[in-house]
Structures are given as C-alpha cells and as structure tokens.
Amino acid sequence: MSKPEHVVDAMIAACNRKDIDAVLACFAEDVHYHNIPMDPVSGHAGVRAMLEPFFKIASEVDWVVHKSVSNGLDTVMNERTDRFLMPDGWVDLPVMGVFEVNGGKITAWRDYFDMAPVVPLLNQL
Q1: What's the domain range around 59?
Q2: Residue pair 93/118 in contact by the 8 Å Cβ criterion
Q3: Which of 74, 73, 67 is nearest to 109 (CA)?
Q4: How far apart are CA 52 and CA 82, in angstroms?
Q5: What pLDDT, on the 0 to 100 scale, is given for residue 62?
Q6: Alpha carbon 70 to chain centroid distance?
Q7: C-beta of residue 58 within 8 angstroms of C-beta of residue 18
Q8: In this structure, are residues 105 and 75 in contact, taking their beta carbons and an 8 Å threshold?
Q9: Given this model, what pLDDT does residue 4 score?
Q10: Apex CA 64: angle with CA 78 and CA 46, to 5°?
Q11: What residues act catalytically?
C-alpha cells in the first residue's frame, strides 16, 4: 500500500502533466472533493468536471507545493500555489489542501482558498 503522501504527490504530478486519467486514478470512486468557497462534488465525474475545464484552457499547469505534512496514516495537508498559464498569462492561486487517503486512494480532498484569484480563471472558461 502506498504512503498517503506518495498518493497525493502522484496526483499533483498528474495535475502538472494535465493528465486527467492519471489524476482520477489517484482517487477512490466515491471521493468527496470540496473547494471550500464553492459547492462540493463527488466521484470521478465530479472531480473531472471541476478540473478538466482548467486543464483544457491552460497551456501549462504548475502546482507548487511549499509545505506538506502527513500523519503517516491517512491524512496529508499541503500549502501550495496552483498556477495556470492562461491565454492572458499566469494565474496563481494560493491554496491550503487537506487530503484523506485510504487503501492507497484519495477518499476526500478539501482545498481552502480565496475566491478573488479564481475570478480571472473562471472568466476565461
């Protein structure tokens, strides 16, 4: 079984490659994903619906992890900057993420961030 931090690292690496299928492979089928200022989604279809539009319009994705901690059992928390190269330039989103990992898959993902930096992203979708 993979360590929780390895599962989260693999998911972030897949996001940076814009490889949605590899991203989804890191999640349990019934994953709960909540970008806290927005409505939560569930399952692979929900995660795909949230991430894929950004992956399609961004020519590059670069999620930079600044700090990461794990309890070694089932929880990983990281502080990161999610960067998207959009047609009008880079958009940086400071994020605090919490991941619950069970059975080698992410079962819950919560990201906490300010909506203000997201508005330029949403306006380009």
Answers
A1: 4-123
A2: yes
A3: 74
A4: 14
A5: 98
A6: 16
A7: yes
A8: no
A9: 97
A10: 70
A11: 82, 111
Side chain identity, residue 99: F
DSSP characters for 28-61? EEEEEEEETTS--EEHHHHHHHHHHHHHHH-SEE
3-state secondary structure of 92: strand
Alpha-carbon distances, residue 78 vs 10, 45, 65, 122 (angstroms): 14, 24, 7, 23
Residue 37: what pLDDT? 86
The burial of 95, by beta-carbon neighbours within 10 Å (0-12 exposed, 13-18 middle, 19 or more buried), is given as buried
The tokens of 7 are what? 């599962």
Domain count, the chain: 1
Give 10-residue mean pLDDT values along the chain (125 residues): 92 98 98 94 98 94 98 97 92 96 98 85 72
Contact (Cβ atoms closer than 8 angstroms) between residue 7 and residue 24: no
Residue entry with tokens 């939560």: 40
Amino acid at residue number 55 = F
Instruction: Tell me the CATH number at 22.
Output: 3.10.450.50
> Are β-strands 89-102 and 75-86 bridged in parallel, bridged antiparallel, or unpaired?
antiparallel
In angstroms, rounded to a whole number, what is the distance separating the alpha carbons of residues 76 and 60?
25
